[in-house]
Amino acid sequence: MNDQSLQSGSRAVGLLVIGLAGANGGALLAALDRLRNQVGDVGYGISSLPVFKQSQFPSAAELVVAGWDVRNAAGQELEVGSVTTGLWTEADTALGDETPESPTWRSIDEAADYVAGQIHDFKRGHSLQRVIVLNMSSPARRLGRPLADWSEHEVLKASPAQLPSAIAYALGAVRAGASFVDFTPSETLEWSALWRMAEHAGVQLAGRDGSTGQTFLKALIASALEMRGLHVASWYSTNILGNRDGAVLMLPGVDVTKQADKAHAIESMTGIAKGEHLVDIRYVAELGDFKEAWDSVVARDFLGNRVELRLNWKAEDSPLAAQLALDLVRMVAAGFGHHSGLRRDLAIYFKHPIGDVVPRSPMEHLNELLAANGHLLREGATRRDLPW
Fold this sequence. Notes:
Elements: E1 13-18, H1 23-36, E2 63-69, E3 83-85, H2 108-125, E4 130-135, H3 152-157, H4 165-175, E5 179-182, H5 192-201, E6 204-207, H6 214-227, E7 231-241, H7 244-249, H8 255-270, E8 277-283, E9 290-300, E10 306-316, H9 317-333, E11 341-342, H10 362-372
Helix pairs in contact: 1-9, 2-4, 4-5, 6-8
């Protein structure tokens, strides 16, 4: 991206990615490089639906990207297109290939100030009015004590051994006037004090756990079955994948939140009996970035007869994550000046949206998104302009 596109008053949006050197971060950078040279319309996803005014969303050329990682990173300053050394805590997950050379810090408060300073420098250096921090780092372990139960004082004074770095990034983003999106299965946005801080700062929070494939399909099918009176009796899901996320999810305690997120919508929408919804995740190195998902579903009609479905989903995981993340980033970017605090209207993007959001069909969540973002709709456009 040339310097001219980053002048003050431009439409540029800073996108700072936690985990930029990972598979998802690499796929996002590769996608943006391709999109910047592509001629014609690009179908990002929801933000590209014809009911929206496309002028409200940033294009690929208008996203100014940098980020952090604890692998394959260099330097301590955020530079466009580069990976700088990220934060590291003893509470973060590790496979042993990390090279954490992050600055030492004694508390979340101190680490958040460091992140805020980096973001401020990046904003000033590129004359940016809008910045979004996107968490695409490795999944974290579920804390022994739920983060929702921690007081603000306890979080701020927590040491690197107590809380994962994502919390410092989120707090640093809010302090720097940047919005924060959690694409991972983490507890970060369960800390409700952060919602109040974001509201006061006029920035947005959204999360958690991007719904890129299988869980989105499950919610869609489950809601359709229930609508037809075919009540779901059992649902078994398995995922096999061979990328780094898969390896991390095999670490003790890491898959707890992920499995709960994948189960959340189905169990809420169907009333399926406890123990009849099983979710399994397995790491198979040979698959690489190709993730395969299998589902075995049993429903019953009004006379108790069995109705069975077998679902199979296979795709490259990282490009799907990159597409959904960019779609979400465009929606958050268009929300500056219109939304602040926790964005419950973005539930359609996540497996387990934060904020006591009642799980619905993706179509119902789309209705909620449209209703909350009338400023983005084309003049005269309504839900009926969509074919489904």
